[in-house]
Structures are given as structure tokens and as C-alpha cells.
């Protein structure tokens, strides 16, 4: 793992004024359902200046897995992690669980343009998370494990409910999607889709999927994380969303 200067897909002033619009792509959950407490204990919110920016996953008591484009190394001092809660408002109340970030890493070959290849990052926390039924690590696939295709999967996040609603959801959302075969993903996304770096997921006919605010969040199959939300076309959920293929980077993560 090599720590490098972040080249995020959006400059900081962009995400403060108009979050999550990156190179013409937007990231959030469309037509999701409210989660219940403890249903997705790996899910966390990355918050700059106490405002939700991205999702992430607990993979260890001191480690958060997210997308590289969610990490702004010059602003780690204003980044906190909300965990153990499905409600973003809890970050402003005594019952909220927040953690400060000690260090951050983005993949040394991350490309913040085109298809955003190698869009993966890690956050190391200053203090360990207290593992409970509401906050615990997600399992990751073995190195280079085959990502299941034509398989039911679950996406979670607090992102926008549709492209023209510029406000994240207060409650954590989840939606059932299908992981499509690589050849189908390439038909939708052409050369911007890398069979090594990416997977894609959505529903036949569109209408459900990721959008702004969901970046960095987890796509899981049977409780194992296979994808990290990276980018999608807009309007959201018309075509399958593109996610970082976790199995490719298993050795880099640990």
C-alpha cells in the first residue's frame, strides 16, 4: 500500500457547493427502502465539515474501506466517520457514534478521469470502533475471487433519491440489484469499463441503483462485499452503476 496525494474526481469547493457531480457522473441510491437498525452494521458515513459526502464499510476495528475519489488528503482533519447508525442526524446528537481519521490511503494507480480505474481507498481511525451488533466488519472475498454475475446483490447508501433532488437521504437506504456479466457492462459503458477494476450492477430496464452520495458504499452478496460504488451515468439508474471490483484489490487492502 502506498500513500499518495489525492487527485479526487471533484475539487473540494465543488463538493461543498454542489456535491457528488464528478466528470459528468453522479452517485446515489434510487428507489431504495429504509434500512432498520443493525441490518447493515458495516455501513458508515464519511462526513466533511459534519456533512455527509460518501459511504464506506467497516473492515476492521480501525479501518474503513471506501472509494479513492471520496478521500481528500488535505482535509482529513475535518473528516469524521459516523458508524453504528442508520440515521445521519445521529451524528449531531449524543447517541451518535463518530470517529476521527488518523490517516488515509488511496490506490497508487487511481485514475481520476474516464472510468476511474483503481477507485479504492482506506481510512485508518484514531481510535478503534467498539464492535457491536450495530457496528461490525463486513467480510471481503478472497484475492482474485470470481465476482458472481447474474447474481442478486444488495446496495446500501444515503445518496440522492433521484438526480434532480440535491439532498441526501436521512435514513440509510438499501436496494436489490443484479450484478451483470462483464460483456453487458461493456455494452453500456464501453472503454470506460475495465474488467479488471470494475463490476456493474442495476436492474433490467433501469429505475433502481446508485447516485450522488452513495460513492464508497458497499455492494454485497450473501453478506460479503464485492463492490465499492464508484460512478454512474446520469440521470441516475438508467444504466447499470459501476463499482470497484473488491476481489482485484484484496492484497492491496490487507
TrEMBL record:
Signal peptide positions (record): 1-24
Keyword terms of this UniProt record: Disulfide bond, Hydrolase, Protease, Secreted, Serine protease, Signal, Zymogen
Compartment(s) of residence: Secreted
Organism: Oryctes borbonicus
Protein name per UniProt: Trypsin
Protein family membership: Belongs to the peptidase S1 family.
Entries under InterPro entries matching the protein: Peptidase_S1, Peptidase_S1_PA, Peptidase_S1_PA_chymotrypsin, Peptidase_S1A, Trypsin_dom, TRYPSIN_HIS, TRYPSIN_SER
Pfam families associated with the record: Trypsin (PF00089)
Domain Peptidase S1: 29-254
Domain of life: Eukaryota
Amino acid at each position: 500500500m502506498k500513500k499518495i496525494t489525492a487527485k479526487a474526481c471533484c475539487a473540494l469547493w465543488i463538493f461543498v457547493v454542489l456535491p457528488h457531480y464528478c466528470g459528468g457522473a453522479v452517485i446515489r441510491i434510487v428507489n431504495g427502502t429504509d434500512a432498520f437498525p443493525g441490518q447493515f452494521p458495516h455501513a458508515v458515513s464519511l462526513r466533511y465539515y459534519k456533512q455527509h459526502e460518501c459511504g464506506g464499510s467497516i473492515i476492521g476495528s480501525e479501518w474503513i474501506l471506501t472509494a479513492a475519489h471520496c478521500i481528500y488528503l488535505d482535509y482529513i482533519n475535518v473528516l469524521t466517520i459516523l458508524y453504528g447508525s442508520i440515521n445521519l442526524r445521529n451524528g449531531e446528537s449524543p447517541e451518535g457514534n463518530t470517529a476521527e481519521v488518523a490517516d488515509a490511503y488511496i490506490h497508487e494507480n487511481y485514475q481520476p478521469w474516464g472510468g476511474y480505474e483503481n477507485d479504492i481507498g482506506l481510512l485508518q481511525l484514531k481510535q478503534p470502533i467498539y464492535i457491536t451488533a450495530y457496528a461490525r466488519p463486513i467480510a471481503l472475498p478472497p484475492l482474485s475471487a470470481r465476482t458472481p454475475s447474474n447474481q442478486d446483490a444488495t446496495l446500501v447508501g444515503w445518496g440522492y433519491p433521484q438526480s434532480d433532488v440535491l439532498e441526501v437521504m436521512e435514513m440509510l437506504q438499501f436496494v436489490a440489484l443484479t450484478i451483470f456479466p462483464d460483456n453487458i457492462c461493456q455494452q453500456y459503458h464501453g472503454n470506460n469499463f475495465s474488467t479488471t477494476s470494475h463490476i456493474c450492477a442495476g436492474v433490467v430496464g433501469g429505475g433502481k441503483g446508485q447516485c450522488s452520495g452513495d460513492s464508497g458504499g458497499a455492494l454485497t452478496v450473501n453478506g460479503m462485499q464485492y463492490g465499492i460504488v464508484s460512478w454512474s451515468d446520469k440521470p441516475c439508474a438508467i444504466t447499470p452503476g459501476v463499482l470497484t471490483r473488491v476481489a482485484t484489490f484484496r492484497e492491496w487492502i490487507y
